[in-house]
Automatic annotation (TrEMBL):
Name of this protein: Peptide chain release factor domain-containing protein
Chain segments annotated as coiled-coil in the UniProt record: 97-152
Any Pfam family matching the protein: PCRF
Family per similarity comment: Belongs to the prokaryotic/mitochondrial release factor family.
InterPro entries, sorted: PCRF, Pep_chain_release_fac_I, Pep_chain_release_fac_I_sf, Prokaryotic/Mito_RF, RF-1
Native species: Ambrosia artemisiifolia (Common ragweed)
Length: 415
């Protein structure tokens, strides 16, 4: 008898003794093939289709065979140090998948044993009910392992684990757009604080009414870019501006860009490619204003990109910030070029990813925020602006990305 059947038999014996000879039946409703709903991103999928499981099984079998082949290489005495190192490195890269596959194979054997036990004990209703209960739990575990394995097989963006640069710019709408740009910038600052991320202001250019013409920040923490990458685009606001006397609703727009921060190995900046200018910073006055050339403007000559920073009183600090922003922009340019040359991914992903695309509308009179890419609306705009409910949108967008990746996984694997 296999493990699953043996465990049910032991529970049956214990129950028989505890009931002191009374033949009571379980009163819980039995669902022998019940698959539960799940709450995580990958697990929101409905019960895995037979086609998807079949495709995934081919991938899992290939991983098992590859792992066995690599194990054979490292166990051969004649294997060279180079071959050993290469094989061992690949084994390590497969280790997480292999752990899940081993768990899945164990559960599959248990399910087979329990199904057999259910058929063999039709006359013993108590034992059959216990077998059904065990089978239900095993099927839940199998579905969970399918979800985890599927998620491990989906393509990943290596930049997801990076920190990011946030850039917010006022668009159409004059001073109202600048005021909304300030609101959006502070929304992300509050959201970052809520997540325990570090939010460092890089540069703020004030408008006449103390809004933000432009603002940028460096956000650091776990998987920051992966969480915020779908915030890039045009955010539209509909509300009555503070300057409006008649109470008429105006529409303004703000553009948001989320750029993954680049490491030194990602972007090689040569001194001959940079033109660095210093000038006196503007501001509200005071003893330090306009007295030293602390503001820095860096131009990357090959691309024509220009970054100006005057937020700090130190020229060196402004230069360091400008270089960080410049590297992030150059890295994003290279990522976009690589994406476009490899595939049509940008046209297939959620929205176009273009900063000119209108992605979200904040309607203050109606108290709602709508994301146009996924048709999702949240009816507490104040919570969103406080950074409290932004996760509703971020999680929904990540779910949509994963569902699209699963569809693409199925389509490409079927050919």
């Amino acid at each position: 008898m296999r493990v699953g059947g043996f465990r049910v038999l032991c529970r049956h014996l214990v129950r028989s003794f505890s009931l002191n000879g009374n033949h009571h039946h379980l009163r819980t409703k039995i669902h022998p093939f019940f698959i539960p709903p799940y709450s995580t991103v990958a697990e929101v999928q409905p019960q895995s289709s037979a086609e998807l499981i079949k495709i995934m099984e081919h991938r899992l079998s290939a991983i098992e065979h590859r792992n066995a082949y690599l194990q054979g290489i490292i166990n051969q005495p004649e294997t060279s140090p180079t071959e050993y190192s290469r094989a061992n490195k690949e084994i390590q890269s497969l280790s997480d998948k292999m752990d899940l596959i081993c768990k899945l194979r164990k559960v599959e054997k248990e399910i087979e044993s329990l199904k057999s036990l259910v058929g063999d004990c039709e006359e013993d209703k108590d034992m059959q009910a216990m077998a059904y209960e065990e089978l239900e739990q095993a099927l839940k575990e199998e579905q969970n392992l399918h979800n985890l394995l599927l998620k491990s097989l989906l393509p990943k963006d290596d930049a997801d684990v990076r920190d990011c640069i946030l850039e917010v710019r006022a668009g159409t709408g004059g001073e109202e757009a600048s005021l909304f740009a300030m609101d959006i910038f502070k929304m992300y600052e509050r959201y970052s604080q809520k997540k325990g991320w570090r939010f460092e202001v890089v540069e703020i250019a004030d408008s006449n009414m103390k809004g933000f013409k432009e603002a940028s920040a460096a956000i650091s923490g776990a998987d920051v870019y992966g969480k915020l990458k779908f915030e890039s685009g045009v955010h539209r606001v509909q509300r009555v501006p503070v300057t409006e006397k008649s109470g008429r609703v105006h529409t303004s727009a703000v553009s948001v860009a989320i750029l993954p921060q680049a490491d030194e190995v990602d972007v090689q900046l040569r001194n001959e490619d940079l033109r660095i200018d210093t000038y006196r910073s503007g501001g509200s006055g005071g003893q330090h204003a306009n007295t030293t050339n602390s503001a820095v403007r860096i131009t990357h000559i090959p691309s024509g990109l220009t970054v100006s920073i005057q937020d700090e009183r130190s020229q060196h600090m402004n230069k360091a910030k400008a270089l960080k922003v410049l590297c992030a922009r150059l890295y994003e340019m290279e990522r976009c070029r690589a994406h476009n040359s490899r595939s049509k991914l940008r046209s297939e992903q959620i929205g176009s990813g273009d900063r000119s695309e209108r992605i979200r509308t904040y309607n203050f009179p109606q108290g709602r925020v709508t994301d146009h890419r996924i048709g999702f609306t949240h009816h507490s705009i104040s919570d969103v602006m406080q950074g409290e409910s932004l996760d509703y949108f971020i999680d929904a967008l990540l779910l949509q990305q994963e569902m699209d990746a699963i569809a693409d996984f199925t389509a490409t694997s079927a050919h």
